[in-house]
Amino acid sequence: MNQNLYALIQSRFPADTSKPFLILPTGRTISYTEADQGAARFAAVLADAGVTPGDRVMVQTDKSPEAVMLYLACLRLGSIYIPLNTAYTPTEVDYFLNDAEPTVLVCRPKSLVALSAIAARAGVTKTFVMDVDGSGSITDAANTATPLEAIANCDSDDLAAILYTSGTTGRSKGAMLSHQNLSSNALTLHEIWAFEDGDILLHALPIYHVHGLFVALHCALMNGSSIHFLDKFDPDTVISLLSQSTVMMGVPTFYTRLLAETAFTSEVSKNIRLFVSGSAPMLAETHVQFTERTGHKILERYGMTEGGMITSNPYDGDRVPGTVGPALPDVEVRICAKDGTPVAAGEIGVLEYKGPNLFKGYWGMPEKTAEEFRSDGFFISGDNAIMDIDGRVSIVGRDKDLIITGGYNVYPKEIEIEIDQMDGVIESAVIGLPHKDFGEGVTAVVVAKDDGGVTEDAIIDALKDKLARFKQPKKVYFVPELPRNAMGKVQKNALRETYSGTYDS
Ligand code: MCA
Ligand code: AMP
Q1: What is the value of pTM for the model shown?
Q2: Distance, CA 405 to ligand 1 centroid (Å)?
Q3: Engineered SS bond to 343: which of 272, 347, 397, 415, CB 3.0-4.6 Å?
């Protein structure tokens, strides 16, 4: 049987494919038939540009129906889809291009000048553009192409996508996700979250990360559902569409921003069957406020790029604030000491997991991959967790030096490397501090040379062209020296304590 995820998606189309698949706030609607045909046309364009099964297609575009069709086209063709955060600068994209060596790049028109030379140097054979509204050279070509209806025959281990995730060393790693990784997770989530006839998804997440691209989109596709498809999260638009939707998924920032709106009431959310949160920890107080305001209990789940969704609070049964629920039915989770020995229920350790959702390793990094797997195939997540006697998991911290800001991961090392290279800087430590809106705010603590003349503005300015905006420090502190322990390691906990109130107001 063809394991291509697109074959599964197609098998789940609604009986009447004239049903809306994507509904935009502008009133534009894309039916399932149009999406399927669009995918076939984009597939034809990619094939024409020389893309064959296993080839990479790198995409840095805004969120539009055409961007979704392009993703579906890549699946259909058996090529490997590589979405990039639109906030990444050309310098960052340069790294991804050279690492993944895609055959085709699709970027925004405004990035074309900066990226085409870089792409050509990295061996890209064809660069297309796609604009905010989905128009552009690739769409023009698709509009006149003869649809490529075939669905490439894939084995379950064949790669469907590579998603880049930053690393503790500062170098991003491409997580290789197979058709089976994606389809198993999609089917499991569709089932345990009880998707049903008539469900309509409210989709305000970006589509270059697991949450928006796979979790949200695939659940709707497994259900043949319609999606209210927003180009970004905007509280007013979300509130105006809640009454016409039944499921919404978001990062905690979505929910705290909704709670800040007086128009967000139990009345406007009464048709919602399920609110899901993940990608970052949700404060217990947010859960409580949300229930008080709307009567709904947000279902919190836990996942990561390398494994999609791993645990979930139950659909029926207790959704406990501060916990992320038990392992998904087809996933094994254990909590271990550093040496890989499982710890007792209730004790803190590092969460490890294994299952059909678990990725195939990091692109071109066999050693790095090997370091993060146990010999029995479990993956070491780097998240500190506790599992209670009933298998319910709580994420209590991180073993990895990672900041999560508004649902985006930022590895301090990547920023420290850049700051440390600046004239007038001796060294730096980048930390995440509690932030009302983003959960954590990226903050730099810098040791400057005596008369180096470095200022906060100069540091932030120097990072502008190098790092995506969400990675740039929202605040820079200067200190004479960094606190270190006896081993010489910077004590980031001490820094976090000292500056904890930075974003209180
Ligand atoms: C934007 N900014 C940010 C962030 N987003 N800064 C820190 N963290 C962020 N996440 C910057 C902007 O560049 C801007 O800078 C300033 O902050 C304010 O922007 P604002 O307009 O408020 O931001 P926004 O456009 O409304 O975006 C905020 C957002 C967005 C809606 C929370 O970041 C978002 O959609 N996040 C979702 C991320 C996500 O999908 N994560 C899932 C990863 P300035 O004004 O100074 O230029 S998948 C994952 O983690 C796993 C698998 C899982 O479990 O799901
Ligand atoms: P990413 O690399 O973007 O896939 O982010 C994955 C990381 O997000 C995980 O390793 C966790 O640290 C974090 N994460 C995801 N969901 C949750 C959650 N519900 N609670 C706490 N942390 C979470």
Answers
A1: 0.96
A2: 7
A3: 347
